[in-house]
Amino acid sequence: MLVSIVVPCYNSSVTIKELCERVDKALIDHQYELILVNDYSPDNGKTWNEIVVNAENNNNIIGIDLQKNVGQFASIMCGLNASKGSFIITMDDDLQQHPEDIPAMISSIQNREDIDCYIGKYKNKKHGIIRNIGSKLVSKMYEISAQKPKNLKMGSFRIMRRKLVNSILEHKTKKPIIGPLLLQSTSRIENIEVNHSRRKNGTSGYNPLKLITATLDNLFDSTTLPIRIFSLMGIAISLLSIVVGIKYLLNYYLYGGLVQGFTTTVLLITFFGGMTLFGLGLIGQYIDRIVIEVKGGPIWAERERVGFNDDKK
Fold this sequence. Notes:
Elements: E1 2-9, H1 16-26, E2 31-38, H2 46-57, E3 61-66, H3 72-82, E4 87-90, H4 102-110, E5 117-122, H5 129-145, E6 158-161, H6 162-169, H7 178-185, E7 189-194, H8 208-222, H9 225-255, H10 262-295, E8 302-306
Helix pairs in contact: 5-8
């Protein structure tokens, strides 16, 4: 039974060799393919060269070099598309996730025909505070927008059946987000405990700005909830303005008082002007995504492959 491990790589030249060695040792009793997708790492070809060297030394390793940076999720989709295994595993390239946990994940899903996917749940999570806050926010959004069970922990270390991967690949969206696609494709998902380590080398490719952007992408690509909330706010503010208007009219006719308050007028104009621009910005985000989807085109473009046999091309 062939097992595919898909790893998106970005500036990971110092970890690839150890990753390949640990995967090979962990899966010594399994037939596997390790698919390393270089997401146009800006390191003067170091990551790709390391992938090529390891692919030349190990027939189980497959390398794909992308022509431009498409992001972690599109890189994973590229690897999923190239995979041939009955079970497909996705994991990161930074060695925070342990290849030694893969055999247990394989055994667990083989013993449960009613499960399509196991997602790794870290025993002791080693991410920073900002990353953890972002993860909790995204998890809550998935509960609201994608009917994620409250006790289910999402993550990038997962094992999936081939049928589930095929279902995910049917989504041709230009900006794929794996979490929502997974939740849209099956409800048969459970967690499995795995280990987690601190990053050994370098820093995360997700700085605070990228984490915020990724969180917003998860929000806008998985739900129209922001637009609905803004619509409800508009209705509430409109009703409030009617109540305030009636109050001023009664004050004028019953007590003959003039409606005063230049400062109040300025603040209201500023507030509603800001709300209008905010609403237009929300609409613009969704329109931008609609335009991207309508334009079509490939999600990724490959420059080179290594380690592919003739029957895999």
